[in-house]
Amino acid sequence: MHIRTKYILLRFISIGMLYWTLVQPQTAMAQARQDTAGHSQKEEDFYQIMTLPIREDVALEVGGMTFLPNDQLAVCTRHGEVWIISNPYMKNGLPPSYRLFAQGLHEALGLNYIKGDLYCTQRSELTRLRDLDGDGVADEYKTIYSWPLSGNYHEYAYGPVLDRDSNMIVNLNLGWIGYGESLSKWHGWMLKITMDGKMKPFATGLRSPAGFGLNDQGDIFYAENQGDWVGSGSITHVEEGDFMGNPAGLIWAGEPGSTVKLRKKDIPDSGEPKYEVAKRVPGLKTPSVWFPHTILGVSTSGILNYGSMGKMGPFEGQLFVGDQGQSKIMRVYLEKVKGVYQGMVFPFREGFNSGILRMNWGSDGSMFVGMTSRGWSSTGPALYGLQRLVWNGKTPFEMRTVQARPDGFEIEFTQPVDEKTARDISSWKISSFTYMYHHEYGSPVINQGGCPIRAIAVSADHMKIRLVVDSMKLGYLHEIRAEGLRSAEQFTLLHNYGYYTLNRFPDGAKMAITAENRVQSSVPEHHHMMDMEKKAPVSRHPNKQPADWTKGPDRVITIGTKPGLKFDQETITVKAGDRVKLTFHNNDDMLHNFVIAMPGTADKVGEAALKLGLNGEKQYFVPVMKEVLYHTILLHPKESDTIYFTAPEKPGSFVFICTYPGHYLVMRGIFIVTAR
Ligand SMILES: [Cu+2]
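Above: the input record for the complex with copper (II) ion. Below: its predicted structure, written as tokens.
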């Protein structure tokens, strides 16, 4: 344990006055995949999560966070309050204190301290908050700029972020009516607003743009969530006049001041990869870095640039991106090739206690993480929370950067690599895939294929590995796995995989393939497909009534869903040996399945589903394991599926859960089998 943490921990225990936890990660996906050879490392060996106590009467559903001078942290909440938190570092063993600065705001989802003032984005306006009489409470709420609302619940607004020209950037969410719609002006847009309230509609095509920020160069990136016209989460570089992909906001593109040239009729709904469509539709922007859905998040949120403030290990110049649904943080390395950003997303730290929305640097370089689960499920179980991520100064063995080359990749590491495992083809696995661009919600993984490695060279200092790779594809994600690689000290990588989005091939020299660097036996092209077939689900999905049920089923059960990740029944009761016909209706607007599992195994099955990775969707997110009795397929909104099975002979309290990633923690019930 980190020495200072231990000191504080002991101090708290001795004082006995505060609830203090070091939250351990709930799952350790990367570690679980590693084999036993080599020393494995854990995220908590390098990065500690500390929990800030929250005053009991404060529902701190964090919408925005910013630091004030004197190390005070200002937090705005969905409930419309602004709290100022003193001593967030809990110095001298004292708890933080909370002071209400402003209230009565309309769903405040963004807060920033700019040039001596607090600015807050409410649902309908950008507001400046001032304490004129110096009593510590805001008494002037000044509208800087406002926009219309339809009243739709999904018209969230976020910001402001200051751009390099001192404009305040605000993002407006689309409304939701079974699909995303811009029901009132400028929803689906990124707006730039001057300090004196002049607005420029800067870009559109945004869907649910909760997170955005600048990199070291001052370029703007925004994080998008999977949804209609969005195959998977991503971060994308936004420039004036860009269209990011969801056409709903284009209805305002002809309004005065609009910088966007495209119109709704220009956008084809063909289901081709977005990169292909963008070749024909100038102005359509494709992601700088795709985040594969359910593997590296399900709902990207805040973006935090490492900048000059952070202290998180040797990742200077990179971005950290939060995830609301999976309560974790990803790390992104960006490079600009031929004027276009692209790069690699890696796992970084999981195990936070609620849904992450905001991250800020503290003055000591630690990362403050503000959270709310907002009635939606997050892997972290708490409704809201405030935690702090502290690096203990030890360097994990990680891929620091991955850069494209004309004929492959060059990977730079944080520590010297072991040459033997680096040169061994079985240490590596690279494949590519992409998503469909269409009006439907999300996308399956499409066009998955292997990328055979032809040559491997290790740099003289053992800090870099150059791979010559076949079948790299523009616009695709490239999964790079290095499970067998060891450091010179025989450590496994802390995270042995990541996803590189290739938008441009760089110029430059190809590596000559020599007898020395040539790979001996390459991975067969269909290796990955065979993997998948091996893992294909067995018959736990009995969707035909057995022929010998001549009198039909003994029990007919119908179960549905309710909003907020719930089944519409908490218990289902059958008799041992009953012939059961069960129909599951998905009347929600998200994806769900229905899985019956052995007593007490809901967490085990749910966690196994999370680890399915790219294969998850093909298996309906149902892991193949003996604990799973029966399941339906994964249902899109309004779909249903019926299964036929004979109830267990042995009475007991089984469980039913939805194993769609992130849902199992709350979406569950009891399947009771009584004696005959
Ligand atoms: Cu579900």
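Notes for the reader.
The pocket of copper (II) ion is lined by residues 592, 658, 660, 663, 667 (CB under 6 Å).
The chain has three domains: 3-26+42-391, 399-534, 555-674.
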